[in-house]
Amino acid sequence: MIRFTLRRLLSGAILLVVVTSASFFLAHLAIGDPTAGLLGDSATPAQRAALRQQLGLNRPLLEQFWDWLSHAVRGDFGTSWRNFQPVSDQISLRVPVTLSIVVAATLLAAVVGLIVGIATGLRPSGILARVLKLASVVLFALPGFWVSLMLVMAFAIKLQWFPAVGYVPLTHSASGWLRSITLPSIALALGAIVMIAEQLRNGFLEVNNQDFVRTLRARGLSARRVTLHVLRNASPAALTVLAIMFVGLLGGAIVVEIIFNLPGIGSLTQSASQIGDIPVLLGLTVVTVVFVVVVNFLLDLVLGWVNPKVREK
Amino acid sequence: MKTDANNDTPLLDVADLVVDYRRGRTTFRALNGVSVTIGAGECVGLVGESGSGKSTLGKAILGLTEVTSGRISFAGSDITHAKGAARRRLAADLQVVFQDPYGSLDPTLTVGHILAEPLTAAGTGRAEARKAVAEMLDHVRLPADTVTRYPSEFSGGQRQRIAIARALVRRPRLIVCDEPVSALDLTTQAAVIDLFIDIQRETGVSYLFVSHDLGVVRRICHRVSVMYQGECVETGPNETITRNPAHSYTRRLLLASPVADPARQAERRRSWLGLRTATGSPVP
Amino acid sequence: MNEAASPAKTAPVSAKQALWSRYLRRPIGIAALAVFLLVVIAGLFAPLFAPHDPNFVDFALTQAPPNSDHLMGGDSAGRDILSRLLFGARTTLYGAAVACLTGVVLGVPAGVAAGYFGGLTDRVFSWISDGVQSVPGMIVLLIVAAGTGADFTVLMVTVGAFMAPGYYRISRSKALAVRKEPYIDAARVAGLTHIKILHTHVLRAVHAPVIIQSALTAGIAMGMQTGLQFLGIGTASDPNWGQMMNDGFRTMLTHPLILLWPSAALGITIAALAFMGSTLADLVSVRTEPAPRRRRRAQQPSDETTSSTGELVHPAELSALRIENLHVTYGTPHGDKQVVRGVCLDVAPGEVLGIVGESGSGKSQTVFSALDLLPMDGRATADGIWLGGQSVGELPRAKRHALLGTQIGYVPQEPMSNLDPCYTVGHQLVEPLRAVHKLSKAKARERAREMLLRVGITDPDRVLASHPHQISGGMAQRVLIAGAVAGNPSLLVADEPTTALDVTVQAEVLELLRELQQEYQMALVIVTHNFGVVADICDRVAVMKDGRVIETGTVEQIFAHPGDPYTAELIKASQDDTASRAELDAAWTKAGRTVHT
Hints:
Chain A is mainly α and 313 residues long. Helices cover 78% and strands 0% of the residues of chain A. Chains in contact: A-C, B-C.
């Protein structure tokens, strides 16, 4: 078990380094000369050259990379090229907002997906199962921002149940915070809910056909106890989907945040990309990939616990 | 009809074969110094239980698994490590019939396509291939319209006949038969075994017949080797092995398989219990 | 070989034409395809259909409601919405096509190679795929957009790169599954090159899943594309739906229609793709959805004669198990299929009954019905089922299930698949003892340990702590027998208990069953296809064929004087006593023919 854990941690760390390094070179190669974006079109070549000198852009790329990486491993992502504020300060201000809706959406997806999945798994040809199947087909493919727009139109503008836009910090007002993240979280979660429920329903169908379920019944176990066995066997696939969904939700949150005007990492990413603010973009990449690595690591631990065979691979 | 120019060398000669399987960090010795020979027109049985290495030996001969050490020669030439083009040339002489009648035919191809494939791969023309395929179907007693149909339209026994036709279509000198009847119903088994025997008489092909069933082996094989935990514990003529084996494992194997006669089975069970008390029985 | 699963299986798809013709029989499939084709046509011929120049600005049209000349009205810059929608379809489709193509080109060859060759190739590609999958694509897209001056094609290629893991995983798993099939080994032995094998056998199998994945991918790519355009990224000069949605979003409080049009277009297109994909997936997948569930124990079967087969030899009150005129029917997509047609049999306490037959004879279905453990799509009707001298056929399900594990023990066929892989052996033995027999935790564990010792396991503590994959097949079968007998049942039902085992293990397990049967004086019903097993352990035997009992009798009687030719044939086919090859060849030569050597 310890070896398993260490191997997963190591592989996560390698992934983090590879992805952020790739992003560094991608950003520099794609953006080329960022001074145009930073200073605007009116800047003279002399001004731009001065800025390049100041930002250290005239050094060889590898040297810049090494400089960035050696600071980054110590948690120092440099300063923004636009306002020269530390990148980590800007990101840490916005992360709670994004995490609020992403974590809320993940929890919502897990809980509702689990309930619907079990309900339809137990009655695989019932009405709920049919509705779920139709809903899962459509909702999985529809993008979160599209769903957001529809929800805003329906619940914020027509019915006026929720605020259309804006964010209330949790420290300010708990109920206000909850109301402000409800619609965005639902918009993000809908696709994940149906995917997880559908995955569980399929898992139930598959596991129910396996021989050991019949043997458990033949031992006289109650339907409830047999269902617990089935659920444990069906859950790895659903858990894997949940983890993949989490990555998707982080990306989807960017556009959803902009629609709901939430001050999360979404609008920061958008503005940073528009002017080519590389340190901020890289900081954002590192933060999101860290989240993904942590979630995948937790998933591996849970999967290893659910099905001990996984640990020995 | 092909025969060896020199009748002294056996068609297949396997000497001191060792095969290791790597599983992660540990290695598992599947075959440990096994030697077998097969003459032209001969059927040699390979009997053993799961994990005895009998299928591994077949795979090694066919080049489907790496050989760690030892030597396999076919018609006098060393094929132990034959790969690529050399291995593909062997396809003319060395063929296979697998156990699973469902998995051994590609469900998306017609039977005609499946049977012609070994020929077209070797560069035979379409018309000639079609003729050879029709001939082979006749050989395995299947109707000519079989070529346009898909494997899923046939029963297990019929599919096994198709698999035999595919093995025969290039007129090989040796066919490795890996449990070819064990997935079939008893009544079908008998018919397929008789087909194997008829074909051998008609074409003179040799068989390496891998099976766990001493009864099947008794009916079809001339000589039998008994495998146990990667080693060959006993080799001898069919009659000796299936009636008066020398090795205690073979005896246990023989006595363990129940015979379809209540009185004789009661007798056999008593002998088995006696042997078990004498040698002790490891719980599997 | 598992009889219980076979009745619902459908034939594999044998030709592409068949797939499409079946697709066109699905109403949802037709509707989705029609809608999608409509969008494609609208996009392709936008210059023909569009009533106006999509970029022409008419200030009078600014945020205008729909009218006869402008069917959808005008946007906030005064441009005709319908025309922009039609031209926008081009952009959307082009982007989705670029993304899908990139995904296929990057994902499918890598996936096929990884699945087919395995080893290092697999590890490297899988690691890359997992890596790509754990990067939030939107951020990288924004980085790419920042630099390339937001070149649309480059952006969609990047989207495609993030879709590649989907293609990779599906091609890899398909290639991996095909790689394990014996027909690939047969093709190698037949002298085919890897290239030829990949081409004829592997790509063929990957084909359909890739098309289905493309429907899904196209939808998701459209979503990401419009999302980017919504953020103001992408070519602004060409009309596109994302930019139109952004326009509508900014005026949604006052003019919601401007947002509604492009949103509806996007939603409908994506939904059409999704339904096309799911319809195809339904057709290709081997798994059949369960048929609508009907009442159990419904009316008497009407389509078949109700004549019963077999015979009852014990008084009902003195029997351990008695089945009267049992019929079992499976609902399949092609109508009902009867697999047991009027079976009667019984067994007395302390007696061993063998039910013998070849695959498909209905022998397993018969015992599952007696235990009320048929799969969901199976239905059983009987004139009467008796257990322990009591009629249980009309008992409610819960009461009948209360007999399981207490009065009846069940030993399955395949040892490994009958243990739950997620739990330890100990848990699986202890759970019923606690839940059904209400033993304390310590007592239940003690009893489980005792039972393992009884079935010949010498290190019970290690086995109790093991997971099923850590023990051998023979050991697993002993564990299952221990579990079946732990509840002291008066009837033990064993469904092919030795078929999956090696012959030496089979002898041990038969010996164990015999000992336990005598020790506990249980009635034993043993289902088998092997007349050797019957001769070894049974007192009486019922021979089944095509869902009917064709013959019953004592073992001595059946072996000495089989009444039915089929029984005689089956006994004869039990190869052990047949002439050896030497004898056969001798007879052959004697008949004047030569053996070809």
